[in-house]
Write a structure and sequence with these properties.
Helix content: 55-70%
Shape: elongated
Oligomer: single chain
Strand order of the largest sheet: 1-3-2
Order of helices and strands: HEHHEEHHH
Structural class: mainly alpha
Length: 122
């Protein structure tokens, strides 16, 4: 899954998010967390874990059906951001920023942080 060729759907990202937050876990624990957070039953979670394994996003090991995330969250965030920019903003990063910044009034500290980010890109 080197370059995120495989698309992870929102439900699969919920499984991945548990692993990113808590580290390697048995599938049973992931199912318990998602039952609490989302209301899924065990079979739903196990099906999604198996889909992630098939896509190369999770590695399974024994004992106890241990799950390990094979892709970092940052890689998925970058791929999803690129897809959003291409799909919704015609590949234009400045259109995305205009849309984001036009949504609400920014605090002075938020403006300064954005100026630092932009300054580091120059």
């Amino acid at each position: 899954m080197e370059n995120m060729e495989t698309k992870l759907f929102d439900s699969e990202l919920k499984v991945m998010d548990v692993l990113w937050r808590e580290g390697d876990l048995p599938a049973k624990h992931i199912a318990a967390v998602l039952k609490e957070e989302v209301g899924w039953n065990v079979n739903t979670t196990y099906t999604l874990i198996k889909r992630c394994i098939k896509k190369g996003a999770i590695e399974r090991s024994e004992p106890n059906f241990m799950c390990h995330a094979l892709i970092p969250k940052e890689q998925v965030q970058e791929a999803e951001t690129n897809e959003l920019i291409n799909k919704v903003y015609d590949g234009s990063v400045d259109k995305l920023f205009s849309a984001l910044l036009g949504r609400k009034k920014l605090s002075q500290s938020q403006i300064e942080k954005l100026e630092q980010i932009v300054g580091s890109l120059e």
